[in-house]
Each structure stands twice: as structure tokens, then as C-alpha cells.
Design goal:
With 332 residues, the chain is α+β, with helices and mostly antiparallel strands. It has 2 domains: 5-60 and 113-173, no CATH class; 201-331, no CATH class. Helix content is 25%, strand content 25%. The strands form 7 sheets. A 3-stranded antiparallel sheet has the order 1-8-4, with no helix packed on it. Strands 2-3-9 form a 3-stranded antiparallel sheet. Helix 2 packs antiparallel against helix 3. The longest helix is centred in the C-terminal third of the chain and has 15 residues, at 297-311.
Length: 332
């Protein structure tokens, strides 16, 4: 998906986007009907990769949209673009005619807006525009929304150190919900959109809420709406929920834990903060702190595997030796 101010195309006024939260398009855009809730997406600004996520929901409504056309009677195409510094204001890219006032045609369209902030992971500058284009199924395509070769994309991102981010996104996109009531429907605006989630994810989260209530294991009490069911292992690899394989984690903490920025010393059961997060006081202050919930032995085993995956051969119990350094760095 191409986001940003450069999305004005042809004779329309452009689209409202917030790259890390939502994306807007309408029924005049190519591939408009091929996007589904549950799809994994990569967002760029035509210059660089911005991030990856999963579409949580899609809202749509019918609205009127102005289309601006070339006034040349022999043309009448909408292949025009407003010029910011030159006069006349418009130039038709089809016939070359220049003019200040286009012909305005109002049409009815279906406008779509997708939300993807829940799983958003920024990967700014990890891939440049030319690199990203080559990873599309049609590298020469100029469409705003185009199919991506996820296998090749995942390999390219992994080579730049972003493999865990893509793995998490794909894990979140896998499967449909298998709750007894069937696939959930999200009612928004004038229609309904189907939301795909991990198989059994809602039941897994409900179990954790019943067990721990509204408490993030690393930061303490938090509103229900910002707490996620965090797996202590890669769900994308195992594809199943273990009874003692998760903790409730605040949304930002969940992402940082998955990426290894935050880890739990399995010996002392204290929080370990990676050096790259030391510049952020809200995370640096967690270093060396004890968990806010009690964990079972199976959870400790998962935490130990997570520790060795992200901290390598560093021996458990080293945390206390780094606390003062991290905190002083956070104050600089």
C-alpha cells in the first residue's frame, strides 16, 4: 500500500491516510475489492518502506466524489494533476492541454477505510523504493495497492534484521477465528466487515484476563482495551495456544517483547531492557523490576527459551549489573 501526500492521482482529490493507523481508498482504485480483513500488509511512501501490519477491520460507506477532467473537448480524460508552482494550474498528462479550471463531474463511490494500528510495526528505511518494487508480484506496477511476494519480502527484511517483525505479522494473519459463534462481524458505518484473527485467540486472551485480571505482567495495571494476549513463544511457528504459554502484555510492551527489546531473566524473574531502548525512560525504568504477576514453571521454561533466543549466551542474573548504566543513559 502506498501512503502519503503523493497519492493524489488523476482527477481526484487524494485520500486520507495515517500510515501507522488507517488507510483509505475507494471503488475507483484498482484492486479496491481484493483487500480483506486479516491480510498482512506492507506500507510505503513511494520512497521507502514505512512498516508492516495486519488489517484488523475494513469500514465502508457510499459517498459522492468529485472527479476533475480535462476541458479539451477532444480529450475529457481525468489524467490531470494540479501543479504547485507553475501556471496554468493544471496540465493534462494525456493530451498536454494546460488550464486553470477543470470540468467537474460528481460520481458516487464506495469509500473504504482499513484499520491496522493494533499490529503496526515500524520498519522505516529498512528497504528503499526500488528494493521494495522488485518484491512485488508485478515489479513494474504503478498501482497504489499491489500484491507483494511475501516470501521474498520476508527474506529481504530478515537480512536487514527485521525478521521477527514480519514473523509476528504473519502469525497474526494466520487462520480464522474458531469460536462457537463463528467468524465475528464488526459493524461500522453502513456495512459489516469480517475480521480474521488467530485461531482461538479470543479464548486465549479471555483465559489470561480471568487469571490475571487487568494487569500487564511487565508494567502493572492497565485498561482492558490495551492489553493483549502475548505468547511467550512464536505462535507463527507452533500454531497453537498453550495453557501456560502466555501473559497479558500492554500493546507496546507486547511488540517489544516479541522483538527481544524486552526480556525476562528466567532466574531472577526480572525485566531486562535491551540497550537500544535505554533512551526511552518509560522502558529503561523497567530494567531490573520484578514481574507484576506470578508465573508457573511452564511459563518460566518458555521465558528461558525466549531469553536464550534474544540474549544469546548471556548468563541469567546479569540484569542488576546493567540497571544503573541504562538509567543514566535514559537521563542523558
Amino acid at each position: 500500500m502506498a501512503a502519503g501526500e503523493d497519492r493524489q492521482h488523476g482527477g481526484n482529490e487524494g485520500y486520507d491516510d495515517l500510515a501507522d493507523v488507517y488507510y483509505t481508498w475507494d471503488s475507483t482504485v484498482n484492486n479496491y475489492g481484493n483487500i480483506r480483513a486479516g491480510d498482512a500488509i506492507a506500507v510505503w511512501d513511494k520512497q521507502r518502506l514505512l512498516g508492516v501490519s495486519v488489517i484488523e477491520e475494513i469500514r465502508n460507506e457510499t459517498r459522492e466524489k468529485p472527479i476533475y477532467r480535462c476541458p479539451n473537448s477532444a480529450c475529457g480524460r481525468s489524467s490531470i494533476k494540479e501543479r504547485k508552482t507553475r501556471s496554468p494550474k493544471y496540465r493534462c498528462q494525456q493530451c498536454g492541454h494546460e488550464f486553470d479550471e477543470p470540468i467537474v463531474e460528481v460520481i458516487r463511490v464506495t469509500q473504504y477505510q482499513s484499520r491496522h494500528d493494533a499490529a503496526w510495526t515500524p520498519l522505516e528505511d529498512l528497504l528503499a523504493a526500488e528494493e521494495l518494487r522488485k518484491l512485488c508480484e508485478s515489479p513494474k506496477s504503478q498501482l497504489s495497492m499491489r500484491p507483494l511476494n511475501w516470501s521474498a519480502f520476508s527474506d529481504a527484511v530478515a537480512q536487514r534484521g527485521g525478521g521477527s517483525a514480519v514473523e509476528r505479522v504473519l502469525g497474526r494473519a494466520l487462520g480464522r477465528d474458531d469460536e462457537a459463534e463463528g467468524v465475528p462481524l464488526v459493524t461500522q458505518g453502513h456495512t459489516q466487515a469480517v475480521v480474521r484473527v488467530r485461531r482461538g485467540q479470543r479464548a486465549f486472551r479471555r483465559m489470561l484476563l480471568d487469571r490475571y485480571h487487568e494487569i500487564c505482567a511487565l508494567t502493572g495495571e492497565a485498561p482492558d482495551r490495551v492489553l493483549e494476549a502475548g505468547h511467550l513463544y512464536s505462535y507463527a511457528k507452533l500454531g497453537e495456544h498453550h495453557e501456560h504459554g502466555g501473559l497479558l502484555l500492554r500493546r507496546d510492551v507486547h511488540r517489544l517483547f516479541d522483538d527481544g527489546g524486552l526480556a525476562i531473566d528466567p532466574t531472577a524473574l526480572t525485566i531486562d531492557v535491551a540497550p537500544e531502548l535505554s533512551a526511552y525512560p518509560q522502558y529503561a525504568s523497567l530494567h531490573g523490576q520484578h514481574l507484576h504477576v506470578k508465573v508457573k514453571d511452564p511459563q518460566v521454561e518458555w521465558l528461558e527459551k525466549h531469553w536464550h533466543e534474544h540474549r544469546g549466551t548471556t548468563s541469567p542474573g546479569h540484569s542488576a549489573r546493567r540497571i544503573s548504566g541504562l538509567r543514566s543513559m535514559a537521563m542523558d
